[in-house]
Design a protein that fits this description.
The complex is a heteropentamer of chains A (about 100), B (about 675), C (about 525), D (about 180) and E (about 500). Chain B has about 675 residues and is mostly helical. Chain B contains 27 helices and 2 strands. In chain B, about 70% of the residues lie in helices and about 5% in strands. The chains are: A mainly alpha (about 100), B mainly alpha (about 675), C mainly alpha (about 525), D mainly alpha (about 180), E mainly alpha (about 500).
């Protein structure tokens, strides 16, 4: 038997790692990966809570999240490609035409 | 029941004349203009005479209501007229002298391009002056009061291309405004305490009041404030400064407005308000002192002036001082008497001076004149009459009126009397000085032909080209003659008892002034005692009469002394004055610069005001303080905005940082809430 | 056994389909556009496809009316049709219609392939419509994602423009970032209540004192939603994204997704009656108003300026959320709904003008370019002036009543200070809107700026927006009554949540077989 | 006493966290991607522990499979090199990271304290595919159908954004706008 | 036509005829001459209609007349409620009287974008009239704001060198200030659920407004600031000179003639009407400000090198009289204040037109540029002098009556205020006559002034009505006062009660 809170903490750690990645990574693709990491964290807590409430809705939710993640991945990578086409860089610090 | 006199016609007629000339004069011929101008002023005079004839049949005071003017709550002021002996006298003087001067002007101004303008202004003046005289409430009087100020503004600045003239007009108006300011405050006090400005209503409420202890109290305040107004209008210290400058105007204007009529409005107003003054000894004292001082100082200045009109101007100021002295000692009838005679002889003097100036081609400096006796016989003789009259040579108008004042002044306080006598001496001195300088000796001016038409009065007669100095046309001479006669015989309506007359003028005005004495005006009111005595001529004790005679003698002596001195200095040894002036250069300088009063005013009032407003208020407060504050606020906003913009560094991770931070704060706050609950 | 029964009941009937009719219509037309796109040739494609898309929105509007006739729950409680959802569905579809109209000629000028563009707009509207009517967090999430993803794409539609793709990227990354937060919030909420259905959640929350988990969940959800409606401190992305995105798209995404997101926020705040929200909303409102207005003061790029102004308006709108006592909820909700409508009307119009004036490659978007517009194209200038006046909040325009309702609601709730802040802000805001008017009318143009004549589609769009703006400004009654009615529909959830579940017996927790 | 269940949980958890951290520290995106795959695999394990078989499967197939492959593919396509440590944003470090730490600590505290003391057994809630499928086609029918729209949008977006300039392709490409 | 039948709608007509004209004007082709004539006709028509009011006003009875009250928006509860009493009536007539003159004076001076100009002018007229006729706070606020835009555009589009700065300054000052009024109005609405002036007033009077006493001071300030900036009262006046100098002639005329009166009217109607106690409480410092305004404005006017600025500052001074009169709470004070408003509208309007005429000829307002103009243009000089005298406050001209009443009112309220204010009589003479001398007297020094044309026909047609009005108002003020007096009496009734309360405490 493992306490529910363990799962939640684990998911929290993953989520936090994702946020950190978003904040500190320079490569756009990596940043995007960190987002995926955050989503994974969320998924874990969904599943955990589902187990806690005996509610399959949670697992279904995870399913949907994955679908969305896939969609986002498709679009997001397309966008990244577009950006790369116009800017020849993947360094987010150099993508700052629009400011002030 | 009173007949309907249609008093309102008297002011309205000149107004009509002014309107006609003002609108159509430009396109119509000089003849037409003169006809219009003369007709309407003459008609006013005629109507006034008519009123005078029916006067005895009226029960006085006669009031006439024309229309509402202002109604506000309980307060109201109407177009309504008021006629009693006082206003009748003023009415006759104004219309008569006014009419004469109209006639004179036809000749004097004939060649002036602004001819029609002049007559329209002159008529306008008549309108306002008559309104002032006939008003039955202070506010209507104030209309006339300001109106005559306007007329004089226009007429002084008649030759507006001359900067000095324009400035003089403006100065006159503004100084008058300062006086009117006091007048207004007085009116407010009246409204506040009596709820009305109508003479009858105000005086009805005042009569029961007893004389205030000198110095304090409502009536005193009102009286002093009214006096401030009078000072402005009648050129008394400290507001006399505008009158000398006013001589920039054409001479007829000086005669009519700045000698005969307008400047006396103050005297009229004070005597009209005598009910108030009689109960305010403090105010009376102020009036008397101001009058005396003005009389003396103006006279002294008169000595040193070389401009013929300036001399007359200062003498006017000084004579007005006499009138106020009279009012100040409660001798209102004497004041009015002198007002009348002064209107005659001073008007005469100005017109004569005008005629002289006219003759010598606009020259006004007496040092450039002389020996005109033979060249201008009419002018010479009429002017002589005027001079004698003002100097107080026995038998002429000025003698009686001045004498009456001096006597009553003595009864009030010997100081007034002394000042009066000295002034009388100075007066006769500078008048004869003028007389000698102008008409005796030999002509000192350049050939008069030289500056024909070039002088200020644009071509007073530049039209008919002929050389030499010549007598004025008949249209100018006739008024001179009439006025000369008046100033000779004008005095006989008021021969005092001491000289075996019975002061008819005083009796005539009696009902106005004497009916209203305060309850116990015993010893506080020296002057009034005198007045009561005068009414009972016969019973007057002999020593009083002899004393009065003695004083008369003294003043006569003073007059002749002045004559003698003038003869000595300006006829027998004309080089003496220069040496004397050199001897007392300092004093002479001060006096001849009119005690530097104008300069002092300029330094103390005008310049600080202008500079202060410019540098402190406008540039300082407006620009620096208010505007800059606003602008700085705007700039501040812009700065903040710039800061806000820099949150938008354009860097994705920074944005994420903001969001994360915000989220952290939010989470922290919410969790804290959740725990705290 | 019970489960089978439940499944039997869960099979949708026709009524269910009626209740998502607009969404269906829109999807069909979207697909239609996609299918037809290769068939029509490039030149005419813009017009034809645009017309189809417009017809789609029109049809959707009609079907919305149908939908409105049969209120109730559908698809096993994932959506509810009530006047609240109808209001927002109608709103977003209308916005889409106007934007489509105004895009015809823009597409042609920018030489952008129109097919996907229109299809994306239609699809995103589907998502928004679902957000408006969904009461199931899953549904909301999906709708949110549909609308967001399609807006990400639209933002990057001028993909050969560095700016456009950058704005798309920023929007996308930050958007997903925020979505993750929202999702985490949902997860926590699910963990706290064991359900993802708003009705049940609110019911649960009313029943007992909310536990800390709920607060945390609320915080996370606020982060996500706050990002979507761009309120401080989550507004940070707005200026960049709006500046880079194509003008008509900005007009679209500054109104429609916001409206939908506000609908969700309204549900979350009022239907769930989120605990402990007051000060967050208060501060966020004040902050957004101030930052937005102050930030706009010195902007020289019109799109960016309007972006800041949209932040400010989100702030005004948020004032209506800061209601504390239930009797004030009604006024707050209706005020907020009215505001969304009014803001949509004027902002879409303003951006329509901007997009027309921007010209090929969006060359003319700075204030200097607008100099002398009053002379070169008085009609365009006058139109823009009307919208700007409405944004300022001059009476007789929708903008005024929008602010008016919000502030009077706030005053009724005794939020005097918040009102003062808002009122002063609206005065400051007047300045930068005025700047545009000033340069249009009072400055002479220094450089040659071509102004093409106004095409029919744009004219129609502008006409609609002006009419809407003025209508809301002169006769706001109808709309407000609708809003109030919807508010009443939204609110009873606080009390009659049991009833709403009673009519859906199969929504019991599924037990292990 | 330490149950096998807990050991497994800790093992998977350790792998996941390690992967996550590795994702952060790795400079080359490809490594990050691989470590992310590791995380996902580990999570799939956790799902299995919780009994969510279907989810675990999908996690491996869709996530670790499809999506991550896509990532790797793009990385290859753009042959993204080692990321250079540019000084882009002080805010992210000054506010972001501390904020993140604060927030996550709070959340951890919250879940530890207030998430109820429930313990979950192995396979607590079996999510067999058929059950999930049943749910998807009944309670969650609408979301399920709508996701198709979502996918459609995504495809379209990918097409629009990533495709090479077509004939109609945009106006003058301006890399940098003023 | 049956007049009584017309009465309920006359206000609507008067208010919206110009607007209708503006709309028609938009459709008219750009033939400048037709446009001018058309707008002249419209404004004259409006003037004619507005004359209906004084003719059929029941002078004796106080309270609002020609009322029309129709529900317009149910929530918020906004009514289309219009009506005038002896106070607002004359301001309406003043507006309609000045508008045709504005059209005339702009006949030649505006040659660019003529159509827009007259459209804006007509819209502005509607807004101005609306401010005075509306009795519903919302309606009032609407018209109040509505005056801003056309005015700002008139200044900013048709103005002179620094027009934009002036326009923005004008707009922002008034906008920011009026926002506080809006807040106050909203508060009142939130408590009373009504915008109707009468309803709110009575509710306040009967103490039916929840926690009103606490809020009253702020509400009072909210209204007061908006009005004070408009007037403009002393510290808020700096926008006025700029606005005037840059504005086109017609703009200045309406700005000085009517727009400023909105502020004083607002104080009279709303501050006094709704918050009698607060008004009395704040009267001292307000009167002090007014006093400062009178003297300060005059002094600054005296040293202005620019004719229009001079007139602008003189307006500050004159409006100071109005405020002083209003807050003296005396019958004559308020009567006077009203009368000064009207008089100032006429004479200052005239002055601005005259200044505009000069600007037409010489394209400058710098006084130093002129001198000796009386010789080349006598008629102009005469007209100018006449108007100057009117605003100097010469008896028998309109300026005097108002100032006299105000001063006596102020004197009754607080003698020292009356006395200090009375010095204004001197100042006005100083700056106006000095300016007149510098412009018209002396010899023509600047050769460019030798050949300036005298007044043209349409200019006479624009300016002489002002002169005539000035004369009539001065000679027969009773015609105006008869209507004003009862209205003012009604406005003052609450103060009697307040006073009694103060006494009783």
């Amino acid at each position: 038997m493992v306490p529910l809170s363990y799962y939640l903490v684990l998911s929290g750690i993953l989520f936090a790692c994702g946020v950190t990645g978003f904040l500190i990574k320079r490569n756009i693709i990596t940043i995007f990966m960190s987002i995926e990491l955050m989503l994974n964290g969320v998924n874990l807590s969904f599943v955990a809570f589902a187990a806690h409430w005996h509610q399959l809705a949670g697992q279904v939710f995870v399913f949907f999240v994955m679908v969305v993640a896939a969609a986002e991945a498709a679009v997001g990578l397309a966008i990244i490609i577009a950006v790369y086409r116009t800017r020849e860089t993947l360094n987010v610090d150099q993508v700052n035409l629009l400011k002030l | 029941m009173n007949p309907d006199l249609k008093l309102w016609l008297i002011p309205i007629l000149p107004l009509a004349g002014a309107a006609v000339n003002g609108f159509f004069g430009k396109r119509s011929s000089r003849q037409a203009v003169s006809v219009v101008g003369l007709f309407f002023s003459g008609a006013a005079f005629a109507w006034a005479l008519g009123v005078a004839f029916r006067f005895s049949s009226l029960d006085l005071p006669y009031q006439e209501y024309l229309a509402h003017w202002i109604r506000s709550g309980s307060f109201s002021a109407d177009f309504a007229f008021y006629l009693d002996q006082l206003s009748l006298v003023m009415l006759l003087v104004v219309t008569a002298v006014g009419f004469l001067i109209h006639i004179y002007s036809v000749g004097y101004m004939w060649d002036d391009p602004g001819y029609y303008r002049f007559f329209s202004y002159l008529n306008l003046f008549m309108f306002f002056m008559l309104t002032l005289v006939l008003a039955n409430n202070y506010l209507l009087m104030f209309i006339g009061w300001e109106g005559v100020g306007l007329a004089s503004y226009l007429l002084i600045g008649f030759w507006f291309t001359k900067d000095s003239a324009a400035s003089a007009g403006k100065k006159a108006f503004i100084v008058n405004r300062i006086g009117d300011f006091g007048f207004l405050i007085g009116l407010f006090l009246l409204i506040q305490h009596f709820g009305s400005l109508t003479f009858s209503q105000v005086f009805e409420q005042v009569k029961p009041m007893s004389a205030e202890t000198a110095g304090a109290g409502l009536l005193t305040a009102i009286g002093i404030l009214l006096m401030v107004g009078a000072c402005g209008k009648s050129a008394q210290i400290p507001l006399y400064i505008w009158l000398p400058d006013a001589m920039e105007g054409p001479t007829p204007v000086s005669a009519l407005i700045h000698a005969a009529t307008m400047v006396t409005a103050g005297v009229y107003m004070v005597s009209r308000s005598h009910v108030i003054f009689e109960r305010a000894p403090g105010a009376l004292t102020v009036v008397a002192v101001i009058g005396t001082l003005t009389a003396f100082f103006a006279a002294t200045i008169g000595i040193t002036q070389t401009d013929i009109k300036k001399v007359l101007a200062y003498s006017t100021v000084s004579q007005l001082g006499y009138m106020f002295m009279a009012c100040g000692v409660g001798a209102f009838s004497a004041g009015i008497f002198h007002l009348m005679t002064h209107a005659f002889f001073k008007g005469l003097l100005f017109l004569a001076a005008g005629s002289v100036i006219h003759a010598v081609g606009g020259e006004q400096d007496m040092r450039q004149m002389g020996g005109l006796r033979t060249k201008l016989p009419w002018t010479f003789w009429t002017m002589t009459a005027g001079t004698l009259a003002i100097a107080g040579i026995p038998g002429l108008a000025g003698f009686f009126s001045k004498d009456a004042i001096l006597w009553r002044a003595y009864q009030a306080s010997w100081a007034y009397w002394l000042a009066g006598v000295v002034t009388a001496f100075i007066t006769s001195f500078y008048m004869f000085r003028l007389w000698f300088l102008t008409f005796f000796g030999e002509y000192r001016g350049a050939a008069a032909t030289a500056d024909h038409g070039s002088h200020a009065a644009p071509g007073a007669h530049g039209g008919h080209g002929h050389g030499g100095i010549h007598e004025s046309p008949r249209v100018m001479v006739i008024p001179l003659a009439i006025l000369a006669i008046l100033s000779v015989i004008g005095g006989y309506v008021g021969v005092p008892g001491s000289l075996g007359g019975n002061n008819r003028f005083d009796h005539f005005l009696g009902p106005v002034f004497r009916a209203t004495l305060p309850a116990e005006s015993g010893q506080t009111q020296m002057g009034e005692k005198g007045a009561t005595e005068q009414t009972t001529e016969g019973t007057e004790p002999k020593e009083e009469a002899s004393k009065e005679l003695m004083f008369t003698g003294i003043s006569v002596a003073a007059a002749f002394l002045g004559l003698g001195l003038a003869w000595l200095l300006y006829y027998r040894s004309p080089d003496l004055p220069a040496r004397i002036a050199h001897g007392i250069a300092g004093l002479y300088g001060v006096v001849s610069h009119k005690y530097y009063v104008d300069e002092i005013y300029a330094a103390v009032v005008v310049r600080p005001l202008v500079n202060g407003s410019t540098s402190i208020l406008w540039q300082g407060v407006d620009r620096k303080v208010i505007d800059d504050t606003v602008n700085r606020a705007a700039d501040g906003a812009r700065h903040v905005s710039d800061e806000v913009r820099h949150m938008q560094s354009g860097n994705l991770r920074s944005y994420a940082g903001w969001i994360a931070a915000g989220a952290a704060v939010l989470v922290a706050y919410m969790v804290w809430l959740g725990v705290a609950r | 056994m019970t489960m089978l029964l439940a499944q039997m009941q869960a099979i949708p009937q026709s009524a269910d389909y009626v209740r998502i009719l607009p969404e269906l219509v829109l999807s069909i037309f979207g697909i239609l556009v996609m299918v037809l796109e290769p068939l029509v040739d490039e030149e005419k494609s813009q017009k034809t496809l645009g017309m189809i898309a417009f017809t789609g929105t029109a049809a959707a509007l009609i079907s919305t009316w149908y939908m409105a006739q049969s209120p109730g729950l559908a698809f096993s409680n994932s959506v509810r049709v009530d006047s609240f959802s109808v209001f927002f569905t109608f709103l977003v579809i209308a916005i889409a219609a106007v934007v489509i109209l105004s895009s015809f000629e823009y597409m042609a000028v920018q030489r952008i392939r129109a097919g996907e563009y229109y299809a994306l707009i239609l699809f995103s509207v589907v998502g928004m419509a679902l957000m408006a009517s969904a009461i199931e967090l899953v549904m909301i999430f999906i709708g949110l994602e549909i609308s967001s993803i399609s807006t990400y794409i639209l933002a990057g539609f001028r993909r050969h423009e560095a700016a456009s793709s950058e704005s798309s990227l920023k929007y996308f990354l930050l958007g997903s970032f925020a979505t993750a937060f929202f999702l985490y919030g949902v997860a926590l909420m699910f963990g706290a209540t064991g359900s993802t259905n708003i009705d049940i959640i609110s019911q649960k929350l009313q029943s007992g004192p909310a536990q800390v988990l709920v607060y945390a969940a609320m915080a996370m959800m606020f982060v996500g939603l706050g990002f979507k409606v761009a309120i401080a401190p989550f507004h940070i992305w707005t200026p960049d994204v709006y500046e880079g995105a194509p003008a008509p798209v900005v007009g679209f995404m500054s109104t429609a997704p916001k409206a939908a997101a506000f609908a969700v926020l309204l549900r979350v705040v009022f239907a769930i009656n989120a605990p402990g929200r007051f000060w967050f909303l208060w501060v966020a409102a004040a902050l957004s108003m101030t930052l937005g207005n102050v930030g706009a003061l010195v902007q020289s790029n019109v799109k960016r300026l309007l972006a800041y102004s949209s932040i400010a308006h989100a702030g005004y709108l948020l004032v209506a959320f800061a209601m504390t006592t239930p009797e004030n909820f009604g006024t707050g909700i209706s005020a907020a709904m009215f505001y969304t409508a009014a803001y949509a009307a004027m902002n879409v119009g303003a951006f329509a003008v901007v997009s027309h004036f921007a010209n090929a490659g969006e060359r003319y978007v700075t204030l200097e370019d607008y100099e002398g517009l009053g002379r070169s194209s008085p009609l365009l200038a006058a139109t823009l002036t009307i919208f700007l006046l409405s944004l300022i909040g001059i009476p007789m325009t929708g903008g005024f009543f929008a602010k008016f309702y919000v502030f009077s609601a706030a005053l009724r709730a005794n939020l005097v200070w918040l009102t003062l802040i808002g009122v002063v802000n609206s005065a400051i805001g007047a300045y930068y809107y005025l700047r545009i008017i000033v340069v249009m009318y009072m400055r002479e143009s220094r450089k040659e700026v071509p102004v093409s004549p106004i095409p029919l589609g744009l004219a129609l769009a502008l006409g609609i927006s002006i009419l809407a703006t003025l209508y809301l400004g002169i006769l706001p009654n109808r709309v407000l009554q609708v809003a109030q009615h919807s508010a009443q529909d939204l609110l009873p959830d606080l009390t009659s949540a049991p009833a709403s579940t009673a009519q859906t017996p199969h929504q019991q927790p599924i037990s292990r077989p | 006493m330490i149950s096998i269940h807990l050991i497994l949980f800790l093992a998977f958890g350790a792998v996941a966290v390690a992967g996550a951290v590795n994702l952060l520290v790795q400079r080359h995106p490809i490594n990050s991607a691989l470590s992310l795959i590791a995380v996902m695999a580990a999570l799939a394990g956790e799902y299995l522990l919780l009994g969510a078989e279907f989810v675990a499967a999908v996690q491996v197939i869709v996530y670790a499979g499809a999506i991550m492959v896509l990532f790797v593919f793009v990385i290859m396509l753009l042959n993204a090199g080692v990321e250079e440590q540019t000084k882009g944003s002080r805010v992210a470090i000054l506010f972001g990271v501390p904020g993140m730490l604060l927030g996550s600590l709070l959340l951890a505290w919250v879940v530890l304290k207030h998430s109820g003391t429930g313990e979950v057994a192995v396979g607590a809630l079996p999510g067999a595919p058929n059950v999930i499928g049943g749910l998807l086609f009944h309670e969650f029918l609408l979301p399920f159908e709508i996701t198709s729209i979502l996918i459609l949008v995504a495809i379209m977006g990918a097409v629009v954004l990533a495709s090479k300039p077509t004939v109609a392709g945009g106006g003058p490409a301006r890399k940098v706008q003023d | 036509m049956n007049i009584d039948h017309l009465s309920p709608y006359i206000l609507t007509l008067v208010t919206f005829v110009p607007l209708a004209g503006a709309l028609l004007l938009m459709l008219l082709p750009r033939r400048d001459r037709d446009i001018r004539i058309f707008s002249l006709v419209i404004t004259l028509l409006t003037f004619g209609l507005s004359l209906h009011l004084p003719v059929y006003l029941h002078r004796a009875q106080a309270g609002f007349q020609f009322e029309i009250d129709k529900p317009w928006i149910s929530s918020p509860n906004i009514h289309y409620h219009m009506g005038v009493d002896g106070i607002s009536l004359w301001l309406v007539v003043l507006t309609t009287f000045l508008s045709p003159l504005c059209v005339l004076i702009s006949w030649k001076s505006v040659h660019d974008r003529v159509k827009e100009f007259f459209i804006l002018l007509l819209i502005l007229e509607t807004a101005l009239i609306g401010v005075f006729t509306s009795l519903d706070l919302f309606l009032f606020y609407f018209f109040w704001e509505a005056t801003l835009i056309p005015m700002a555009l008139l200044i900013g589009v048709f103005g002179h060198e620094r027009k934009v700065y002036a326009a923005v300054k004008f707009f922002m000052y008034t906008m920011i200030a009026s926002v506080f009024m809006l807040a106050a109005i909203l508060w009142l609405y939130a408590r009373t659920h009504s915008f109707d002036f009468v309803v709110i007033r009575d509710a306040i009077a009967q103490h039916q407004v929840a926690n009103f006493p606490a809020a009253a001071p702020w509400l009072f300030l909210g209204f007061f600031i908006a009005f004070a900036v408009k007037v403009p009262l002393f510290p808020f006046h700096t926008w006025l000179p700029d606005a005037h100098v840059e504005a086109p002639t017609a703009g200045s005329v309406l700005l000085a003639g009517v727009l400023l009166k909105m502020g004083t009217y607002g104080m009279l109607r709303f501050n006094l009407g709704l918050f009698p106690e607060q008004s009395r409480g704040n009267a001292p410092w307000i009167m002090a400000l007014a006093l400062v305004g009178i003297i300060y404005g005059a002094l600054v006017a005296m040293v202005q090198p620019n004719m229009k600025k001079l007139i602008a500052y003189s307006s500050v001074s004159h409006l100071g009289f109005v405020v002083l009169g209003i807050f003296s709470f005396t019958q004559s004070g308020l009567n006077g204040a009203m009368f000064v408003m009207l008089a100032h509208g006429v004479s200052t309007g005239g002055l601005f037109m005259l200044a505009g005429v000069l600007h037409e000829r010489r394209h400058t307002y710098e006084i130093a540029e002129f001198g000796g103009l009386a010789s080349p243009m006598p008629v102009y000089a005469a007209s100018y002098l006449f108007i100057v005298l009117a605003s100097v406050g010469l008896p028998l001209l309109n300026g005097f009556v108002g100032e006299f009443l105000v001063l006596s009112g102020a004197f009754q309220a607080k003698p020292i205020y009356g006395i200090l204010a009375a010095t204004g009589v001197i100042w006005s003479a100083c700056y106006l006559l000095w300016m007149f001398q510098r412009v018209f007297y002396g010899k023509v020094t600047n050769p460019r002034n030798d050949s300036v044309a005298d007044l043209l026909g349409f200019e006479k047609a624009a300016i002489w009505p002002c002169a005539i009005a000035a004369l009539v108002m001065g000679v027969a003020p009773i015609m105006w006062l008869a209507a004003i007096d009862p209205a003012v009496q009604a406005a003052l009734t609450p103060f009697a009660q307040v006073l009694s309360k103060v006494v009783s405490q």
